[in-house]
Write a structure and sequence with these properties.
Elements lengths: L4 H38 L5 E2 L4 H15 L9 H8 L11 H5 L5 H8 L7 H14 L3 H10 L1 H7 L9 H4 L2 H7 L4 E2 L6 H4 L6 H7 L2
Parallel strand pairs: 1-2
Helix pairs in contact: 1-2, 2-12, 7-10
Protein name: Sorting nexin-29
Pfam families: RUN
Organism: Desmophyllum pertusum
Length: 209
């Protein structure tokens, strides 16, 4: 049986769609597991959840993976691309989601993160914001705001991105709500948020397995 070119294209497209579907399911499974581990250890207790606990590190890693999934590469400025080619600027693949997040911040909130002394890169500001949102129990509110702004979502994310999967993305506010019973005490402004010193997101996900 011969397969025509159009049929090959259809089969290839179906395979790619199935692959991205699996990626999104894997992301939510890993995130829910990380939330569960933190909830069991810290939920409803007076113990502080800090950066030094491996379960908290895994939680942060999974949230970052969700934010990074399907982020449009074109959002990286041409200036920074030229700088990277010239060896002047080092692009951090983990940094880009800050550009999406800052579109949901008020002026005072944005100024607060732009004024950080140590977390001065896009990577640092993104990680600092995530830690701050967990500390202040404001992540659920942010997720509702983000998911409700379809214009910004389509501007920053590819159609196969996790945030564009309405069914799975709708679970994000719920996961954040579960974490509201945990007392987070995460360091917001430090060198570790500026440059990820614990490896790439993929490396960290493997450590969280």
């Amino acid at each position: 049986m011969f397969v025509t070119s159009p049929q090959k294209q259809i089969m290839s497209g179906q395979g790619q769609q199935h692959s991205t579907e699996n990626e999104r399911q894997h992301l939510i499974d890993r995130l829910l597991d990380a939330v569960k581990q933190c909830q069991v250890r810290f939920g409803g207790k007076t113990d502080l959840a800090t950066d030094g606990d491996s379960r908290v590190v895994c939680l942060l890693t999974q949230f970052e993976a969700v934010f990074q999934h399907g982020f449009k590469k074109s959002r990286v400025s041409a200036f920074r691309q030229v700088g990277q080619a010239a060896g002047i600027v080092k692009l951090d693949s983990d940094s880009v989601f800050w550009n999406f997040v800052k579109g949901h911040l008020g002026k005072l909130e944005l100024d607060r993160f732009l004024a950080l002394e140590k977390a001065t890169t896009d990577a640092g500001r993104g990680r600092a914001w995530l830690r701050s949102a967990l500390n202040e129990h404001s992540l659920e509110r942010y997720f509702h705001h983000m998911l409700g702004n379809k214009t910004l979502l389509s501007q920053f994310y590819e159609k196969e991105a996790f945030f564009m999967d309405e069914e799975r993305a709708s679970m994000l506010p719920m996961t954040a709500a579960v974490l509201s019973s945990i007392l987070f005490a995460l360091t917001v402004d430090n060198e570790e948020t500026k440059h990820c010193t614990t490896g790439t997101t993929t490396d960290n996900q493997q450590r969280c397995a």
